[in-house]
Write a structure and sequence with these properties.
This protein is mainly β. It has no helices and 39 strands.
Length: 403
């Protein structure tokens, strides 16, 4: 009998009498079973390689090669290579095998990992992709150097320091001699506020070590004693009252306080005071004294002459009478311009004195007059002058006029 090819369990009956079958009623048979095993299943594995720390690194390098083998339960060893050169083996544990190298010199390396299973019938072998790893030659320790924008000067002295170190430094330590330090390559300007000598030192470092310190000396002297000098400009030194004058400080020597006297009894401590208005004719001496920590200046002065302008004379003009007609004793309002504050009104030949609050209207009472009486206005206060250039007619009622 030929065994079945497919995996599984097969059952057979064998009768002692030739030709007997289960349907002939003969029961003297013997039962058999045959189990056919299937072909073994081989698990395919993959191997991935990671190298740390990331390259490039500086020699001597100490990279760790870590191989991760996929395939549940995969057992075996991983052999690590640089190109075709074996670097050694490591057993797989929980899917991982690793190896740390030491003293790797400068160069470029092509690392890979090859997994070999313990049971080749159960797992396949696998090889990782090549991982290129670069180790660079060590950089020599750097040499410190720097420049200073000034090595001497008057306080406060601002100095800018610029790194000129060689050898590829990666860190900087500045000490400025005034208690301050910095770790930036080119620090902000340092201001020395007090006189003295200051030793500025720079030490630079990289992965290969630190440089020897380099030092420069900064010499700071006190500023000379400078008393300020007072000066100023005036927007006008003469004019008609009221004269508004603006004074602007132009003093030198860094003053910090100001004392103005304006000649009219007023003063100011502002550097540039508000405009001063001179309302009365006269000569005014304006004086400025400035001070700082070193003392006060001599006074600076200017003289302003103020004159009284000739008055502006406005000629009166009559616009209207209200009412324009009426009886004797009628209250009449004369409107117009240039009436001033006092003056006279002529009703024909009758002269009436008036006062005006605004120079624009006059209130009078119509005196005795003829039927058509001419009305004129003559101011007498000086702000207005002359008789009105025009006149108006007041018409008396017929029964009231004088014949």
């Amino acid at each position: 009998m030929t065994a079945p090819a497919a995996a599984g369990t097969y059952y057979y009956k064998v009768w002692a009498v030739k030709g007997s079958t289960a349907t002939t009623g003969v029961t003297n048979f013997k039962a058999y079973s045959i189990t056919v095993a299937g072909a073994p299943v081989v698990v395919t594995t993959t191997t991935a390689l990671a190298v740390t720390p990331a390259s490039p690194v500086v020699a001597p390098g100490s990279p760790t090669l870590k191989a991760t083998v996929s395939g549940a339960g995969a057992a075996g060893v991983v052999e690590f290579f640089n190109g075709a050169t074996s670097l050694g083996t490591s057993a797989v544990s929980a899917g991982v095998a690793s190896k740390t190298l030491a003293g790797v010199v400068a160069g470029s390396y092509a690392y890979k990992a090859v997994f070999t299973p313990t049971d080749a019938a159960a797992f396949t072998s696998s090889t990782s992709a090549v991982s290129t790893y670069v180790v660079t030659a060590p950089v020599p320790a750097p040499t410190a150097g720097f420049t200073a924008s000034a090595i001497s000067g008057i306080a406060p002295l601002a100095v800018t320091f610029t790194d000129t170190s060689t050898g590829a430094p990666t860190s900087w330590l500045w000490t400025f001699g005034n208690g301050s330090t910095s770790n930036v390559q080119n620090p902000p300007a340092v201001t020395y506020t007090a006189a003295g000598t200051y030793d500025v030192t720079l030490i630079v470092s990289n992965a290969s070590g630190a440089s020897a310190p380099v030092t420069k000396t900064i010499t700071v002297t006190d500023p000379p004693v400078v008393v300020p000098t007072a000066s100023f400009t005036a927007s006008a030194i003469s004019g008609d009252a009221p004269l508004a004058v603006t004074f602007s400080d132009t003093s030198t020597g860094a003053p910090t306080s100001w004392l103005w006297t304006f000649g009219d009894g007023t003063t100011s401590n502002a550097q540039n005071p508000a405009a001063v208005t001179y309302t009365t004719a006269g000569v005014y001496t304006v004086e400025l004294i400035v001070s700082n920590a070193n003392g006060a200046s001599a006074p600076g002065s200017r003289t302003s002459a103020v004159t009284t302008p000739a008055p502006v004379v406005v000629a009166p003009v009559i616009s209207a009478l209200s009412p324009a007609n009426g009886a004797i004793g009628t209250a009449v309002t004369i409107t117009g311009t240039g009436f001033g504050t006092v003056g006279t009104v002529m009703f024909g030949t009758t002269v009436l004195d008036y006062t005006s609050a605004n120079g624009l209207s006059i209130d009078v009472v119509a005196p005795i007059g003829v039927r058509r009486t001419k009305v004129t206005v003559t101011p007498t206060d000086g702000d207005s002058a002359g008789t009105a250039s025009n006149s108006v007619i007041f018409k008396y009622d017929r029964i009231a006029r004088v014949r």
